[in-house]
Design brief:
The structure holds 2 protein chains of 2 kinds. By secondary structure, chain A is mainly beta. Chain A contains no helices and 11 strands. In chain A, the strands form 2 sheets. In chain A, strands 2, 4, 5, 6, 9, 10 and 11 form a 7-stranded mixed sheet that branches. Chain A has a 4-stranded antiparallel sheet with strand order 1-3-8-7, with no helix packed on it. Chain B is built from no helices and 11 strands. In chain B, a hairpin with a 5-residue loop joins strand 4 and strand 5. Chain B is globular. Chains A and B meet through strand 5 of A and strand 5, strand 9 and strand 10 of B.
């Protein structure tokens, strides 16, 4: 398996533009997570899905952020409109099960580095 | 509430031992984890410890857990330049009826000759 795949790896956009980040989880994993990493706030969980259904979106910063998982092999995180404070590295991760045991390892993608000018 | 705290930076000399410390708040966490993030990459699970254990050793890695003080540490023996990375402590915590991982901010380990 190729692991978790994210695209694009780097995105530079201007304030006000729509940004779409993409993720392909590991085949067979039932859980998918979106995280945001910044120097100031560290690693934050934004939202996670179980079997394509959003379970906990309490970490989504505001209505400008939305996430979808139309099928088991694809998820998107969209920011519309984007702002400079959204600049961060966005990680997607997937796991076979939810946290609570040693087999519940989360596998992370390489991340998308987003810069909003 | 849920909170995992770590020191942000550690610098050691090659060949010395590194000790990265972490405190957590959820006493019901069944497992505690250490993840490693190398430059330009995502996080990768390094090791974990079950909450009823106080120590786990895996080659150069030793994890110590003080459940009373909610303190977790990761010791790396004979630290090498390849160990330079950010190390994240994480606890599993129940929120809204679901378990999820709560990560600390990460400790950046710099290894110098």
């Amino acid at each position: 398996d190729a692991g978790v795949i994210q695209s694009p790896r780097h995105e530079v956009t201007e304030m006000g533009q729509e940004v779409t980040l993409r993720c392909k989880p590991i085949s067979g994993h039932d859980y998918l997570f979106w995280y945001r990493q910044t120097m100031m706030r560290g690693l934050e969980l934004l939202i996670y899905f179980n079997n394509n259904v959003p379970i906990d979106d309490s970490g989504m910063p505001e209505d400008r952020f939305s996430a979808k998982m139309p099928n088991a092999s694809f998820s998107t995180l969209k920011i519309q409109p984007s702002e400079p404070r959204d600049s961060a590295v966005y990680f997607c991760a997937s796991s076979l099960r939810l946290a609570g045991g040693p087999l519940d390892e989360q596998f992370f993608g390489p991340g998308t580095r987003l810069t909003v000018l | 509430g849920e909170d995992v705290e770590q020191s942000l930076f550690l610098s050691v000399r090659e060949g010395d031992s590194s000790v990265i410390n972490c405190t957590y708040t959820d006493s019901s966490s069944t497992y505690l984890y250490w993840y490693k993030q190398e430059p330009g990459a995502g996080l990768q699970l390094l090791t974990y410890i079950f909450s009823n254990m106080d120590m786990k050793q895996d080659q150069r890695l030793t994890v110590l857990l003080n459940k009373k003080d909610k303190h977790l540490s990761l010791r790396i023996a004979d630290t090498q330049t390849g160990d330079s990375a950010i190390y994240f402590c994480a606890e599993s915590s129940i929120s809204g009826g679901y378990n999820k991982l709560i990560f600390g901010a990460g400790t950046r380990l710099a290894v110098h000759p």
